[in-house]
Amino acid sequence: MTHVTDNQAAGRYELEEEGLTAYADYRREDGRLIIDYVFSPVPLRGKGTSDRLMRGVQADARAKGETIVPICGYAATWLRRHPN
Description:
Number of helices: 2
Helix content: 25-40%
Mean pLDDT: 96
Number of strands: 5
Strand order of the largest sheet: 1-2-3-4-5
Low-confidence stretches: none
Distance between the termini: 21 Å
Shape: globular
Order of helices and strands: EEEEHEH
Radius of gyration: 12 Å
Strand content: 35-45%
């Protein structure tokens, strides 16, 4: 099961898999969740880790009534492909 956590102190969402951490750096402003950067360690790339991370980010933002504003190219592409 995928468990994405909101590490507010670090300003990022995190997903740990295989002992490594993928993350999405963010800022919150006026009901918006601004995703600055999404990172996945090389050993996790191509395994769907960033997709699972973004699904968790999207679910949390939706639960909080926030609009996601992607600055990161990966986040922008992912959100275009998964608008709901």
